[in-house]
Amino acid sequence: MTSPISWQASLALGFCALLAGCASVAPERAFQAGANAAQARTGVEARLLRSDADRQALQTGIDTLLQAPLTQDAAVRIAALNHPGLQATYWEAGIAQADVAQAARLRNPGFGFSRMDGGGNRETERSVSLDLAGLLTMPLRQRMAARRLDETTLRVAAAIERHVTDTRRAWIEAVAARQALAYARQVADAADASSLLMERMTQAGNASALDLARESAFHAEAGAGVLRAARLAHAARERLTRQLGLWGTQAGYTLPERLPDLPAAPRELVGIERTALSQRLDVQAARAAAAGTAADLGLTRTTRFINVLDLGYASKSETGEPRSEGYEIGLELPLFDWGGARVARAEALYMQSLGQVGAIAINARSEARAGYLGYRASYDVARHYRDHVIPLRKQISDETLLRYNGMLASPFELLADAREQAAAVHATIEALKDFWLAQVDLEAAIGTRLPAQAATDKKDTPE
Asked: pTM of this prediction?
């Protein structure tokens, strides 16, 4: 016949219930740690969208930002909050935090019941089992899960930083393409006027058919340049739109007409390799991964022989016989698998992770050096165009126009100078774009934003 479970079994069940409530699941707290790490490096705030109310509030804020031409800072704010793929990445922190909570809980206890009738006798058995091995290794599993949470937090922060970097690059390329398109249209308009002038001069006998053909060719090339610049501008804008996660009417945002001016002086950075090793999230993630692998190795050695260890309470009653109680232990015997392969695999993974940390550190140092050299070289090129090429081209244009007005230069010299000046302006726009892209690449290489420009910096003026 049946009888109630004894106080020992009730104690076991109560203990399991107590362990189950020791850890809570809070994905917002886990995500916020990664968001704070990314904000310290990028200056951009990221938030987890959990409800339709959050999404609606975000769309309202985006509409407000898009009322004015989209600045680079506004673009990265929108991208960090609105991009659905990035939002999906944010939930990885919640998953890792749930694993931490799961590691603090034992496997549910098992309850067994059997009843047998025969020969006038009835035999009833009841048992409650508890995962004792899980209880003994719980501290180790909790530490492992906590390390994995730290790794995931760094990965989330790195994803935010990477998306912000890509958005900054997309914004620079989109604005530069828009500026190049606007200038290409100005060149095309000037070429149209010069072509019309050359036709009239040819009809009047003041220009040859060869002169007309040359000017017509320039006019045709200018038209092709507009088509090419328009294609590049549309493609760059769509890349930026994808980074922002915008669609519908919001995709009709406006961009500034031109890139920011070149700073008066480049940033002077000291200890860029040290900064990269201390600030880059991929370096920190690699270190955390190595630490986590070491923790895994410790757990593998601890549970090398004991894979299954169950402790349980058993109760048996039989008709006409006194009730008997006791306990049972289930143990997996290491007859065939002594755990050596698992330990060897864990050690190999740990040595692999150490090599990966070293490789990432070497790459980080090299990328920091290359990024800074590229930044300085791009600045020098852009400054050279700003302070030398463009002023000289302007001087030549002014002198040519003055000589033309004094009837000392022909219209052909004036038109040829206009073509050369157009090429110089196009190169200047490209040099300025390359500089701002190089600054973004440098910030990504060292893992943090460049310091604010000194107060002595002034608006661009030729030296």
From this structure: 0.73
